[in-house]
């Protein structure tokens, strides 16, 4: 059906535009708000329905379709043919067909050509065939997927409920999946008129294809769709379309809507598995780390594409599954919510909880007054300690996410392999590791000679002017790669005019009390020039630089 997805953007400036293979699988778009995720889905839907992109802004450059063999097309052509009414003229080699609500004369040869070589005429391929196999599931639509359907001729079932009703094995599998996720048993009620109704019971139903007393009694007490949550309806409806629906292309914007996080995770797993099992192309955008984790954990093939749009530059990057699995499986990375970084423009990582909370509050105050030093769309995370910062920023950067590390000045004590870990995580060229190690040792010695308590006595301010330049040069070079050393020594040294005791246990609470919480209060601490406000501003300069160092292509 669809073999490749061609994007307009690349992973970074100077790289070739992204192209991904899309054999039956799920492709998931992630990224910050306004990065183009929903627009990408609209582009795909437009091309599947019309073979064109129309006036929509393009995230997707084009779709490449799979060429088809001619020997399996006659049934498809026969299925869309309709009767010729009196007075209508159909030339030889043509057929009267019905597609949706439209009836028209179609050239049989043109249909065969469009199906066998769809890339030569994507408009005919899409309008005559693919549009009938494409389902775009929006918010309200996903709840209505479990509405009653006509039973019809069950010898030739033509809707998802009828198809699942006549397939005991698929119905059993779907029932088990839904029960494991929501604790209710899915069933179909054929006892009302000529329709099939979805029911949910507390116990597994008897034979639904029987109208015996046991089945009728069960259906009387089972819950109708009006008695379950929108989340249960959406979850059931999406799985129903995947396993029993006719569409070969399914497009879902934010499938996690209405769902509890655990149910979103289960849905991600079932969508990924179902796409491969049923041979379908599913395209999804999401803001949910839980949904994403479910899809990755399924073991099925999943394409994760991260889109960004920042400083008028768009990017599209296929994320390596190994790095995503690492984010999901590493207990430390999982515990601090690293996977959430996929949905933000930037990530800032501090040494501990107090660092994270303090720098985030500083940033919030900058943003609140529209200060250009404020960092929008940023996620603040904390490591277990400074030694685990490389463990967090390394996988994020490999995924193309600008992740800045913020460390106190005692990071210079970490020599050897420990220091090298910071350099590797910051993507500093290997050939420069030894020179950086030599500079680190030299600056550390000058600090210790100037004052053994340099961390709490002013950081680089303890150095004589003749030595300070070399120390600042080292910090400047590291900042070019997104590693920021607090030159004043430690996080507790900021806003020293507030005269806060430096106790690790009480500092954050005390400084927040001094900073105030009500902007109208005259003692409320507002951004000024210098101090921590400029420090955050320097981090922003690296984060927003289009061709920043430290991020692999």
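^ Assign residues to that structure.
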């Amino acid at each position: 059906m669809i073999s490749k997805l061609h994007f307009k953007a690349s992973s970074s400036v100077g790289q070739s535009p992204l192209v991904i293979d899309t054999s039956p699988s799920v492709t998931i778009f992630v990224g910050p708000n306004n990065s183009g995720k929903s627009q990408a889905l609209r582009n795909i839907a437009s091309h599947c329905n019309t073979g064109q992109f129309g006036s929509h802004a393009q995230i997707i450059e084009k779709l490449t379709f799979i060429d088809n063999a001619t020997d399996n097309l006659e049934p498809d052509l026969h299925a869309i043919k309709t009767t010729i009414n009196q007075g209508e003229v159909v030339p030889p080699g043509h057929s009267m067909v019905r597609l949706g609500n439209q009836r028209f004369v179609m050239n049989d040869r043109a249909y065969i050509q469009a199906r066998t070589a769809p890339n030569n005429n994507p408009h005919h391929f899409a309008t005559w065939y693919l549009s009938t196999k494409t389902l775009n599931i929006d918010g309200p639509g996903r709840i209505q997927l479990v509405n009653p359907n006509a039973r019809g001729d069950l010898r030739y079932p033509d809707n998802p409920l009828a198809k699942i009703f006549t397939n005991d094995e698929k119905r059993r599998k779907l029932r088990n999946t839904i029960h494991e996720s929501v604790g209710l048993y899915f069933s179909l009620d054929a006892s009302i008129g000529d329709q099939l109704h979805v029911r949910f019971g507390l116990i597994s139903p008897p034979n639904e294809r029987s109208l015996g007393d046991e089945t009728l009694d069960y259906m009387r007490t089972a819950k109708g769709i009006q008695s379950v949550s929108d989340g249960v309806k959406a979850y059931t409806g999406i799985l129903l379309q995947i396993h029993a629906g006719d569409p070969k292309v399914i497009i879902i914007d934010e499938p996690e809507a209405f769902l509890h996080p655990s149910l979103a995770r289960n849905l991600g797993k079932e969508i990924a598995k179902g796409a491969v099992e049923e041979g379908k192309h599913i395209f999804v955008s999401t803001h949910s780390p839980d949904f994403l984790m479910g899809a990755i954990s399924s073991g099925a093939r999943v394409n994760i594409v991260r889109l960004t749009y920042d400083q008028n530059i768009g990017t599209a990057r296929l994320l390596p599954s190994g790095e995503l699995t690492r984010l999901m499986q590493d207990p430390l990375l999982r515990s601090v919510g690293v996977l959430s970084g996929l949905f933000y423009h930037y990530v800032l990582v501090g040494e501990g909880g107090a660092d994270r909370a303090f720098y985030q509050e500083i940033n919030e105050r900058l943003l609140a007054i529209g200060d250009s030093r404020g960092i929008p769309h940023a996620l603040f995370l904390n490591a277990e300690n400074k030694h685990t910062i490389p463990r967090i920023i390394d996988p994020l950067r490999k995924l193309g996410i600008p992740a800045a590390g913020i460390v106190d000045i005692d990071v210079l004590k970490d020599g050897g392999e420990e220091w090298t870990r910071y350099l590797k995580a910051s993507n500093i060229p290997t050939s420069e590791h030894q020179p950086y190690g030599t500079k680190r040792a030299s600056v550390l010695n000058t600090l210790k000679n100037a004052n053994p308590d340099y961390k709490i006595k002013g950081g680089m301010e303890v150095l004589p002017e003749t030595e300070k330049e070399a120390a600042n040069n080292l910090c400047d070079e590291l900042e070019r790669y997104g590693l920021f050393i607090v030159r004043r020594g430690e996080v507790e040294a900021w806003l020293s005019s507030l005269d806060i005791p430096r106790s690790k246990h009480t500092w954050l609470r005390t400084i927040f009390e001094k900073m105030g919480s009500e902007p109208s209060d005259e003692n409320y601490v507002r951004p000024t020039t210098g101090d921590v406000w400029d420090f955050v501003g320097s981090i922003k300069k690296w984060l927003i630089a289009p061709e920043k160092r430290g991020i692999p292509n």
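The mean pLDDT is 92.
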